[in-house]
Amino acid sequence: MAQAMAASPPITTRSTRIAGTPNAVGEAMTAFARLFELGWLPEARRADVELVVAEVLNNIVEHALAGREDAWIELAVTAEGGRVFVMTADDGCPLPSPLLAIAELPAQDPQTGDLPEGGFGWFIIHALTEDMTYERADGLNRLHFSFVI
After folding, report:
1. Residue 94 phi/psi, 5° resolution?
2. Domains within the chain, CATH numbers bracketed
3. Angle CA(17)–CA(39)–CA(82) in degrees, nearest 5?
């Protein structure tokens, strides 16, 4: 049986400002998931998009905005022409430049089989997105990436 094609997404942009806390990110992810309830995004791709956005937002809270009471994150999502474009912005610490080039799984300890504490999320982000760019300008971090749907 042939699989039905998903309908094309409407050209739409949604943006929001999120407090830079884990609870606020959780609430934002719930709202974010509602953007895709119209059925135009295939379920497998929807899971990828949600996973990456959650990982990016959590990394921003944990690393760029750590310890900040006044922290915030801007999130903008645009669906257009078979792609989902995502932009985040925050006024936290800059992203270490080596992270943009790293797309490898973190090393596992061959003696114990122990996995390292971090690095898996960044690998997932690189693996599932297209054309990721980062810029630091005027005290703001801006991360752009997209998904083919």
Report:
1. -65, 150
2. 12-148 (3.30.565.10)
3. 75
pLDDT tens track for 37-54: 666 677 778 889 999 999
Question: Which segments of the chain have a pLDDT < 50?
Answer: 1-5, 113-117
pLDDT for res 116: 44
Reading the block at residue 103, the tokens are 């797309």
Selection from 130, 144, 131, 138 nearest residue 74 by Cα: 144
Phi-psi region of 126 (alpha: psi -120 to 50; beta: other; left: phi over 0): alpha
Exposed e or buried b per residue across 8-32, where buried means at least 16 C-beta atoms within 10 angstroms of its C-beta = ebeeeeeeeebbbbeebbeebbeeb
